[in-house]
């Protein structure tokens, strides 16, 4: 793990012990984080990032930008903020964005290959399926731009999971959803 904890701590002119006191962990924990032997749990990573004035993704080495403002400042000449990169800074880090694109391309390829090549009413080729995937990938930016941030982040996190983890999570979501439907809590909570 190539985190920036040590670098940021030194910028603040803090010892490991002083930083540990600030966020209520041990000096040993700070040392392990800095060496990449352990990864801070999400609550401690957020606390540490807030204290050091950076995003969690920058702190953990997933982003080259300390925060969203730095990204926006550097890309202000682009006039159009690519929502996927903007949201990636806060979720998985823009450096991991190719992982998301690779996941989405694989999903589209599987879906379109099945649809196009198994359609008995029309004659589609493999090339037709590839063209459909390319069009879908081209629409990703616009599609993500129109989604609420919470759904974009969900897609980013989902894409980083292994196939078996996605299946397990989907089963859990189904169970929770059915429980909510049974309790008629959709009308109460939403």
Write the layout of secondary structure elements.
Blueprint: H1 5-11, H2 16-23, H3 27-35, H4 42-52, H5 56-59, H6 68-74, H7 83-90, H8 97-117, H9 126-145, H10 149-159, H11 163-182, H12 186-189
Helix pairs in contact: 2-3, 8-9
Descriptive terms for the model:
190 residues, mainly alpha
Can you offer a commentary on this structure?
The chain is mainly α. Helices cover 68% and strands 0% of the residues. It has twelve helices and no strands. Helix 2 (16-23) crosses helix 3 and helix 8 crosses helix 9 (126-145). The radius of gyration is 21 Å and the shape is elongated. The two termini are 39 Å apart. The model is unreliable at 76-81 (pLDDT under 50).
Estimate the mean pLDDT confidence. Answer: 78
Distance between the termini: 39 Å
Query: What is the rounded Rg?
Result: 21 Å
Q: Which runs of at least 5 residues are low in confidence (pLDDT < 50)?
A: 76-81
The protein's oligomeric status is single chain
Beta-strand segment tally: 0
What portion of residues belong to β-strands? under 5%
Q: Number of helical segments?
A: 12
Please bin the fraction of helical residues: 55-70%
The biggest sheet amounts to: none
Helix-and-strand structural type: mainly alpha
Order of helices and strands: HHHHHHHHHHHH
Tertiary shape: elongated
Short description:
The chain has 190 residues and is mostly helical. Helix content is 68%, strand content 0%.
